[in-house]
Amino acid sequence: MRFVLRILKALALLLVLLVITAAGWLFIRPPELLSVGDGYAAKIVCSNVFIAGRGTEDVLQDDVQAPGNPLLRLVRVSVDRDNDRVTARFMGLFAPSYALYRGAFGCTSVPDGNFEAAANAAPFDPPAKMQANDALWPEGEGTGNPADGKIAALLADAGVAGPAMRAIVVVRNGRIVAEAYGPGFSAKTPLIGWSMTKTVNAAVLGRLMLDGKISFDDDNLLAQWKNDARARIKVSDLLGMESGLAFNEDYGDVADVTRMLYLDPDMVSLPANAPMEAAPGQRFRYSSGMAVLLSRIWMDRVGNAQAAFSYPHDALFSPLGMTSAVFELDARGTFAGSSYLYATAHDWARFGQFLLQDGVWNGQRLLPEGFVGAMRTPTAASNGRYTQGQAWLAPGGPSAAFGLPEDTFWLTGHDGQSMAIVPSANLVVVRLGLTPIRLDYQPQTLLKAILAAVPQSGEPKQQAGSQQKAQPQP
């Protein structure tokens, strides 16, 4: 009996030693996957608490833990409202990661914990806050006439709207004809667009094209690319996701995209140092890194840092009346053009209407002629799925396969964000939510149902761009 007790004591001691060793290892050198998870949690909680005004636990449970990796259910977060910081730790103990709120520029991941550098990277003179008004949308927030009953009924159908829908706005002939919101969300809630941000970022670059400061054909884009093969990469190659640069966009593990977003305070570093895997223009590779590079490139072309920080607001958001738009920066001061724009569904719809109108707003051309055409023109290397301007023609399959008009083009984003623009029907449909890809929801279902409910408008409008390489006219 004593022998058995000795064995049990030895095993218990061994178990304790193993636990202590594992805890020490997690504390001193946590796996990168845990750091990515904590970085993601800190950033998402920060943006939703400080920008959208949501509750900490609601965001943690609904946005971070419910749809993601099971390990995220062990993440704990704390919000320091006095210092505008969020800290996330695995099991409340390990792999701490941080996010910092910087007012008009939203939140940023601070993976190195250097809050001073992150604070100093944002300007001290942010653009002035715009105020919404009650005029009829899109001039203001008023929706005027009662909603179209047929479309409103469609939006109330969970099978059409999709699981975990948070906002749907339907714009027909330049006016909101129906809208719907999930529990806890409203027309005043800023929501993340994820990769829909890429198309907005492209439009910001297009505004700079109108000023003659950048063009599709510009190369020698970064100083560190001088005298190597990457010097041949053009702006058009980055816009069409055909740069030839290697980049891993797999969100299921520690990949280039998660490393860039949650482990590196300077998001530009990883894609800027990526090796070439193909000649420019020869291979399509969807890459959030290319969108971040575009941000850095257009910011450098604006002229000075303060003007660059204000440029999205001054050149795009203010003219369109996107009063809620918050375009977030990384910890070193580059706009996260791949992923991080928050705006209300009404403001996302304004951007869609702007593209429907070929980059003209209130009679003023804000994008060069042909630029929206590039957004609607497929690239050869993507087999017609992606376009020359950071948008999609065939996410999940060609429009014809879903019975949709051929001139339909899309903005899409992680977890079910989508915007469909149908010029021939004078229609914009914004759908925002938390709908992971594993739920197999396709926004084409919603669009097809809406199209069936609206009167036919005759022949499709001529596309703004031809199937040839679209070029802006400065």
If you had to describe this structure to a student in words, what would you say it looks like?
- With 474 residues, the chain is α+β, with helices and mostly antiparallel strands.
- It has 15 helices and 14 strands.
- The strands form four sheets. The protein has a five-stranded antiparallel β-sheet with strand order 6-5-14-13-12, sandwiched between helices. Strands 1-2-3-4 form a four-stranded antiparallel β-sheet, sandwiched between helices.
- α11 packs across α12 (305-320).
- The longest helix is centred in the N-terminal third of the chain and has 27 residues, at 2-28.
- It is globular.
- It starts with a helix and ends in a 21-residue tail after the last helix.
- The model is unreliable at 21-27 and 458-474 (pLDDT under 50).
What is the topology?
Layout: H1 2-28, H2 32-50, H3 56-65, E1 75-80, E2 85-90, E3 94-101, E4 107-109, H4 115-121, H5 149-155, H6 158-161, E5 165-172, E6 175-181, E7 191-192, H7 196-210, H8 235-239, H9 256-262, H10 269-272, H11 288-302, H12 305-320, E8 326-327, E9 341-343, H13 345-356, E10 360-361, E11 364-365, H14 371-375, E12 409-413, E13 417-422, E14 427-433, H15 443-453
Antiparallel strand pairs: 1-2, 2-3, 3-4, 5-6, 5-14, 7-9, 8-9, 10-11, 12-13, 13-14
Q: Count the strands?
A: 14
Task: Profile the largest sheet.
Answer: 5 strands, antiparallel
Overall structural class, as computed from helix and strand content, comes to alpha+beta
Computed over alpha carbons, the radius of gyration is 23 Å
- Described by the principal axes of the CA atoms, the overall outline is globular
Sequence stretches where pLDDT stays below 50 over 5 or more residues: 21-27, 458-474
Number of alpha- plus pi-helical segments: 15
Distance between the termini: 91 Å
β content, as a range?
A: 5-15%
Spatial strand order of the main sheet: 6-5-14-13-12
The helix-strand sequence is: HHHEEEEHHHEEEHHHHHHEEHEEHEEEH
Q: Average pLDDT across residues? A: 90
Helicity, as a percent range: 25-40%
